[in-house]
Write a structure and sequence with these properties.
about 475 residues; alpha+beta; Collagenase (Catalytic Domain); seven-stranded antiparallel beta sheet
Length: about 475
């Protein structure tokens, strides 16, 4: 199946040779998009002379070397050269399964994606980096060392991944330089990568290798991941990504959020890069409060101060491949900068569609985004950012598209100014292009001017939170 992803750097075209469940397919596409953005962002910085010379020299022979590699990899994303295949677990030529392997490249040139790839709770590898690593293998880079060791032609897929993550602020050169490379051994498992995982000290027999950190299940007793190459099912070389520990897969995790009326409802947490973590959480856990990091795909890592909330939405039990309007009703209670209490409400409609299994996914349901004063700025709202904010949310759904359900004149897009607390709540519902979080192009979701509950409307969720901006906490409250 051909999959298209629109990005600010152009269109991605890749293939899936097997079916992926909705959640996993979406997560895979997000990871591929993230990898594509990293590659383009790194290439742009390199061309502008904004990459530290020491980074280039540490990983490659010269700048032209990595420049050509990045351009070649980017073309693979654009020209359907990436084919992904879903398999449960990695299996070596002798039939031994390894449930901790994330991905591998087969002799047929497919990227095999295993269940571990979707376990972001226990396995912290940057998934965009995993994709870059595997696509580099597809381009003929066989090496697994953290830096390119060849004095003639570049040979390390890991070095390419390291360069991109460093250029995008996801990894530091100091972390790479601390690592001691293990000698390649074709009879052992291939070198994996996880910059934030603990390593054995240099000078020990396993110096530089990943060691078990605890907290997960299914890892080996020592939790080591040694360098080397494993054999594929066909008996040839297969490049793999394997972390040091493993926990339950994403598809078997999670409970409905507190306040859920539908027992199939899930809210999925969003990370600092605005990507899904695969972790199902309560409404209160979707918030970032106080000073927090924000990784902008264009400007790079930034620090923000304020309050932000959004999440990926999942619900099941719908007619397969049918139009669904998901309604989000939000009530905000807060103090304005004039110290007077304010109450505002907004009702928005998302133009969604269920998949062949009757599951509806919305990527991304936006709630609130307020910036307080930081680095000399004045913030972006009229809210007193030293007071408490209460947010009450109800979610429901109904068959049909928003303008069919509520009437064309009753749906408007992005009509609220950026200074209003309700501004961010309208943004993703109003998106009308698939690349901007809408499920389809020409989506007709947006603000419902005059909401009236429909007789066939299905209640999904009812909950409320109180945000303390002085203590940087979020707590659940009664939604009455």
């Amino acid at each position: 199946m051909e999959t298209l992803i629109k990005t600010q750097f152009g269109l991605i075209k890749y293939e899936r040779s097997t079916n992926f469940p909705l959640q996993e397919g979406t997560f895979l596409s997000q990871s591929i998009k993230e990898a594509f953005v990293y590659l383009n962002y790194s290439l742009s910085k390199l061309k502008k002379g904004e990459v530290d010379e020491s980074l280039v020299n540490s990983l490659f022979n010269d700048e032209e070397e990595i420049l050509q590699i990045l351009e070649d990899l980017i073309e693979k994303f654009k020209n359907k050269a990436i084919i992904c295949k879903k398999e449960r677990t990695y299996s070596s030529s002798d039939g031994n399964a390894d449930i901790s392997v994330l991905a591998s490249v087969s002799e047929e040139g497919e990227i095999k994606i295993y269940n571990a790839f979707f376990n972001t709770k226990e396995i912290k590898d940057n998934r965009g980096g995993v994709i870059i690593h595997e696509v580099a293998h597809l381009s003929g880079l066989e090496g697994e060392s953290n830096a390119n060791e060849s004095t003639s032609n570049p040979d390390s897929a890991e070095a390419v991944k390291n360069f991109c993550l460093c250029a995008c602020g996801k990894l530091s050169l100091e972390e790479i330089n601390r690592e001691k490379e293990s000698p390649e051994n074709p009879e052992e498992e291939e070198q994996t990568y996880r910059p934030d995982q603990a390593r054995a000290p240099k000078g020990q027999p396993d110096g530089g290798q990943w060691v078990y950190e605890g907290g997960g299940s299914g890892g080996s007793s020592k939790g080591e991941s040694k360098g080397g190459t494993s054999n594929s099912e066909g008996g040839g070389s297969s490049k793999i990504n394997k972390p040091g520990n493993f926990g339950p897969s994403m598809e078997s995790e999670g409970n409905p959020p507190k306040g859920a009326i539908s027992n199939t409802l899930r809210f999925c947490r969003i990370d600092e890069s605005r990507n899904s973590t695969g972790e199902f959480v309560d409404f209160k856990d979707t918030f970032k409060i106080g000073i927090y990091r924000y990784d902008d795909t264009i400007e790079g890592p930034r620090t923000k101060s304020g309050i932000w909330s959004a999440f990926d939405f999942f619900d099941s039990g719908y007619k397969p491949e049918s139009d669904v309007t998901v309604i989000v009703r939000l009530d905000f209670e807060y103090f304005g900068r004039d110290k007077k209490i304010q109450k505002k409400s907004i009702d928005v409609a998302y133009d969604a569609k269920s998949d062949k299994d009757g599951c509806v996914k919305i990527d991304r349901m936006s709630i609130v985004n307020l910036e307080s004063e930081i680095n000399g700025s004045n913030g972006n709202s009229t809210v007193d950012m030293k007071s408490d904010i209460k947010i009450r949310m109800k979610i429901s759904s109904v068959e049909g598209r928003p303008k069919e359900v509520f009437g064309s004149a009753n749906i408007v897009k992005n009509s609220i100014s950026s200074a209003d607390i309700r501004y961010y709540a309208q943004v993703h519902a109003s998106a009308d292009e698939k690349s901007n979080y809408a499920q389809r192009d020409k989506a007709d979701g947006g603000i419902i001017k005059n909401y009236r509950k429909k007789t066939n409307e299905k209640d999904i969720y009812s909950g409320a939170v109180k945000i303390s901006l002085t203590e940087n906490t979020v707590s659940e409250i009664d939604n009455n």
